[in-house]
Amino acid sequence: MRRCPAGVLLAVLLAGCSQPSDTKSVPETPAARSPATGTAPEGPPARAVELTGPPRLVKVGEFDQPTFVASPPGDKRIFVVEQKGRVVEMVGGRAKLPAFIDITGQVDYGTGRGLFSIAFAPNYAESGLAYLSYTNLAGDSRIDEYKVDASNRDRLDPGSRREILAVDQPYDNNKGGLIRFDPTGMLMAGFGDGGGEGDPGNSAQGLKGMLGKLIRIDPSKPSAGREYGIPEDNPFVHRPDDRAPEIWAYGLRNPWGWSFDPQTKGLYVADAGQSSLQEINFVPPAEQPGANFGWSRYEGDQLFDVETNIYESQLVRPIKTYGHTGRNCAVIGGGVYQGRVAELRGFYLYADFCGGVVMGFKVENGRAVEAQTFGRLNAPSISSFGEDSEGEMYLTSQQGGVYRITAN
Hints:
Layout: H1 11-14, E1 55-62, E2 66-70, E3 79-82, E4 86-91, E5 94-95, E6 101-102, E7 115-120, H2 124-127, E8 129-135, E9 141-149, E10 152-167, E11 179-181, E12 187-191, E13 213-217, E14 247-250, E15 257-260, E16 267-271, E17 277-283, E18 291-292, E19 298-299, E20 302-303, E21 320-323, E22 331-336, E23 348-352, E24 357-364, E25 367-378, E26 382-387, E27 393-397, E28 401-407
């Protein structure tokens, strides 16, 4: 097995790791190259007529190891998360300074560690609340709440920090870290199994902790000694045993990319495999509470660990798997495209960190159909997908670029 180079930081979040070491050799299309010196990258368009023609990527910014892109609801500003600990607004293709929030002093930055994502409260325009997911100086997972500065709406107030959730991490890899608000307004977070080859602690199937899980909480209603409330419709709430009531779904190795279809509310979860298979799962709304994605008994749709027992009838089978052929090494989950490019509407888009090419499919009757590879959507070391408030989709690269999907 080929080992991860030290400079590929996010990759250890995603894979075991078996990617090629020369990620820089992924060819860039003309659209992926930096613009000429002195010319700022193309900025985001106003929401207008739909775009037709072959989809392509255009580089819209250059940042320091970006890990995520997001916008507050109804807000045209675009914010970029940088792994070392900053969230910055993208203006003219670059970081607007001072930063929206800078927590570099709280972040353990390195291979598989750092600031991963930001989630703006659904009522951000009124509440000014945003949430950060990161690893602290001990390498453990944290989710903190911040409030916008009362004297400067372009900054979060560092002094307003409230620690919402703390999850101890036993190893350096498989930390997950993506946070989003679900369609009902609850905050969800994806955590990996905690690392160690083959999930040695059986964390993904164990229901006492949050590793290997999607968890769902209400940060607006602290209760029972927690800095958050437990939604009443969580599957393990009010159980007489010691199952963690925060759990929404489980059996995951490292769910870095997961998202909801804005139209159907279906849940897509891209789970990075260990050595052989990458997988993408689709779960309709009614089947989401308590869904079991099968790790570590299964890697993708193949038996991995016969010692791990699960109820087969409750297993979520992947809707899509692929192996480590060519340059592929670790799946990067995206979302159902809602932007202006007509050719991509309704496609669930994803990529591979090492492969560097965006792929997609549509879901019909619980099956992946119209599977395609969009060769012109090509960037090096794709680390995440994100959207602005108007539904336009962006990709980040660990090599620094932020790209927007557009068309000729």
